[in-house]
Structure formats: structure tokens, C-alpha cells
Design a protein that fits this description.
Length: 159
């Protein structure tokens, strides 16, 4: 979890490979209206996100019923968003990829085509309610990707 450009997809895919768990890009679960709104440069409002959050929660519940572990890259910016995602899901671990605005802005400006534009990053930082260390595993994005993945794997496999 974290703002756009913090590395959710990169880290999620590497974790997927390392752990053998399915990786699901949360952005792919947005309704088309949300994608079009973000692509036009408009940040989503809370009411736009609620159906998306419920979709992700349902997916988590389905995989839980199947006994399958998954990784979902999802911004989960606010505490109450995370509560929706967590509803009735056992053993859900949030990993917060924490970074400074300028670092993430540079990453966003350097990346290729994505519907989330760099100029919308400020709104995500304004909405962000960083989770506490008791709510999530907080990991700095300043380390190299493999070090970040190692830290996450160590933490989630030691529980």
C-alpha cells in the first residue's frame, strides 16, 4: 500500500515471484469510470473509491475461502479504506511503502504510460493517513528493491 509511484507493483511482483503467491494489480480492479476520471487528471473522491475497495475485499474473501495467499497492490490511503479491505479477512498484512514526495514524484515523471498522472500525486499525499507500525509493516522505499523484498519476506514469514 502507498501512494501512486511508491513501488507497489514492482515490489508486489517481486514478492509474488519470491513467495509463489499470485500478484493482483489493484488498479486493474477499478471501474472504467474511475480509470477515465484519473486519466483525465481528476483525483478520485471517496465515494468513487468505495465500490473499488469492496471489490478488493470480495476478492480477498474469495481467495481466503480457497485457502490461497495473494498480494494486492492497492493504495489504501485512509484508515477507513483499510477497514473496508480488512473486513472479515483473516491474516491480512498491510505493507506500507513509505517515501518522500520528491522521491516519488521523480519516479512518476520517469515512468511510462500510466493513467495516474504525476500532477495528481499531491492529492494522494493530502489524502494519505499513514498507518502506524502496529497496523502495517512500514518499509522505506529508499532501499534497493531486493533489500525491500528481503525485509518484507523476513517479516511476514516470521509471524
Amino acid at each position: 500500500m502507498g501512494v501512486s509511484g511508491c513501488g507497489k507493483s514492482t515490489i508486489g511482483k517481486r514478492l509474488s515471484t519470491r513467495l509463489g503467491w499470485e500478484f493482483i494489480e489493484g488498479d486493474d480492479l477499478h471501474p472504467q469510470d474511475n480509470i477515465e476520471e484519473m486519466a483525465s487528471g481528476d483525483p478520485l473522491e471517496d465515494e468513487d473509491r468505495v465500490p473499488w475497495l469492496h471489490t478488493i475485499n470480495q476478492l480477498l474473501l474469495e481467495r481466503q475461502a480457497e485457502g490461497v495467499s495473494i498480494i494486492i497492490g492497492c493504495s489504501a490511503l485512509k484508515g477507513w479504506y483499510r477497514e473496508i479491505l480488512r473486513r472479515d479477512v483473516d491474516n491480512l498484512i498491510f505493507v506500507y511503502l513509505s517515501g518522500e514526495y520528491e522521491t516519488i514524484l521523480q519516479r512518476m515523471q520517469a515512468r511510462g504510460a500510466h493513467f495516474m498522472k504525476a500532477n495528481m500525486l499531491r492529492s494522494q499525499f493530502e489524502d494519505l493517513e499513514p498507518p502506524s507500525a502496529t497496523e502495517a509493516l512500514v518499509v522505506s522505499i529508499e532501499d534497493p528493491v531486493e533489500i525491500i523484498v528481503d525485509k518484507i519476506v523476513e517479516e511476514i514469514t516470521s509471524e
